[in-house]
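#random but structural
TW: two for the price of one
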Amino acid sequence: LPHMTSTQIKNMSQGVDEANKPMQMDDSKRRTKVVASLGPSSWSEEMIPKMIAAGTNIFRLSPG
């Protein structure tokens, strides 16, 4: 592997941070629906709003 400067490493890590953020989209143009399963690990008052903010349109209930 080639050596990288600290600036190059910093720039790469910023790209990774950006890649992990949800995409900002105009929902009026999106034709795909996001279906999420609610089960034991996601069945909380804190998790459901996070899933909606991430783009979930429909929830499927899984008794887990």
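TW: number two ↓
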Amino acid sequence: MMKPESLYPQIEAALRCNDVAAKLAATYHVQAAWEAGLLHRQDAPLSRLPLAGHPARPELVHATKVPRRRTGSPQGQPAMLHAIAHIEFNAVNLALDAAWRFRDMPDAYVTDWLRIAAEEAKHFRLLQQRLQQLGHDYGDFPAHNGLWEICHRTDHDVLVRMALVPRVLEARGLDASPELKRKLANIGDHASVAILDIILEDEIGHVQVGNHWFHWLCRERGLEPMTAFCALLDEYDLTAHRGSYNMDARRCAGFSEAELQWLQQAKPERPSPQA
């Protein structure tokens, strides 16, 4: 019988990899090897990562410098798909980092986040292939690095990571999906709409995983979830309230009715702790 290899160096190699195709392949490999019982959680060096592995292109700029284009313009459709592909590429790195960094979490947590990393890799590849069908590729448009920046800011505490990445940033993706699909359908891009349908179904599960582990950690630490969540929103100067909400998707992703009611308030007050 083959001796199991160490899990963490393999995740780190995928996380630091700059080549797109190699990163995707390494992500699929480590997830499959973990599921097959071929890797074990032997301790390994851990460090902060100001920037995860990424290719030389796209050019990374401040979010305010990313050009805004109408979907119906010649560059608008591929630019929108490129922006979503960039989010999915970053999401691969975020999921790998979640599995790699927080070593005290149960095996089920590692299983969840490696599966999510593989699904994010699948999403990225679907979008990259669609861009190629349209005569473009990943890297053709500038992008920003806001997702990884919040990942870096939350690398000290898994509860903070679960609160602010799945429950805020990824949940915003659930909210954005209907409008993105509407814009693409309006220009007849039903192939891209079908890809976004796949992504939405998977992303509901990803946010659900974040909700599960956030609540699990709150129980472990004796914290009231909404009180803790709101305190973190204040501390990190983030808002859970942006535009309209995909309430059905959020409900499927594990947000409580009290949380959904809070989101719908025009000027939401901090909710009362729930029993």
